[in-house]
Amino acid sequence: MYELMQDGSAHQLFLREGSNAPVLGETVKLSASEKSRFSVYSEDFAGQDTQLFLTEMNRGKKYPENSKLIFLVEAFSWIMTNIIVINPNIGISNTEAYYNDESLENISKLIQTFDTGVTEIKTRQITIDEMGKMIPAEVVQGIFSQLKAQLQMSNLPSIQMTWRVEGGFFNIRIKEGEEPEISTLVLKHGKSVFDFNFSEESDGTKRLFDLIDMLLTERPDTVFVVDELERSLHPKLTEHFLKLFMEAHDGVRMQLVFTTHEDTIMDQSLFRSDEIWFVERDADNASKIYSLDRFKERYDKKLSKAYLEGRYGAIPVFRQFSFRKGAERPGDVRPARTETERR
Question: In the chain, what are the domain boundaries?
């Protein structure tokens, strides 16, 4: 772990190599008691191959506010709080945008810009039994168990959250000693007189609800990490989302890091060359990562074409396989032969 300084230099805070005991950087000056304490923690950790040292140093350990080791707490806290990973099974959102009519109206207008056919988003109150008909009972049980546990830990009179699961999109508010209040999203399409449940929408529309929090959030100093951003989205929708993200958070300390196989958005009018990175697997099946910036391309270069031609690497390399005519293929069923044929 390194601390980046204003002058561009970097100070090493600690180093862990393989299964060796972690060591502090030379710039971290500890008192005699802290040095002894760190030495015990470090030696105890030696040989651990499957755990993170930073996590271990925040497990049940207390540091005085003036401790030189407080950076271990600050770094861990920032990673746990400010890095938000969004994957297909994320299932939960902390946004309050779905709790009032005014914000729902704004979301409706935002969704309309993606040309999904959805023209309005509303909420409808439902019971626990109705919720149980939309999603499996064990999922419902898990949701309420987690919310009740968070309510007890927070010591607050109430707690509310938005849950996105395969079978629906639910707003849940729990107050101590009261029945939970549950509402679900319903969507209108054009002039249709029917309301559509969230589960009836296309995968692309559902995917937008996974991502839309990133456009609405006002939490600065946040890093969003998204695996396969383009999943279920048309390339133009993916591009539109990225432009909206940049516009919504212009001048704000907020970052989006995502993986994608969608080469059409690899455009220098959308990203700087140092913002585009490639991941390539080597002969040992280890991944290496490198920036487009190393290739020093012209600003008007058609990057997607050059990428597919193999200029930047990081593309699949296929092996030859020949289907021989007349030869048996895996899965072929041979007709049974009579005794005469066998002879």
Answer: 2-72, 90-201
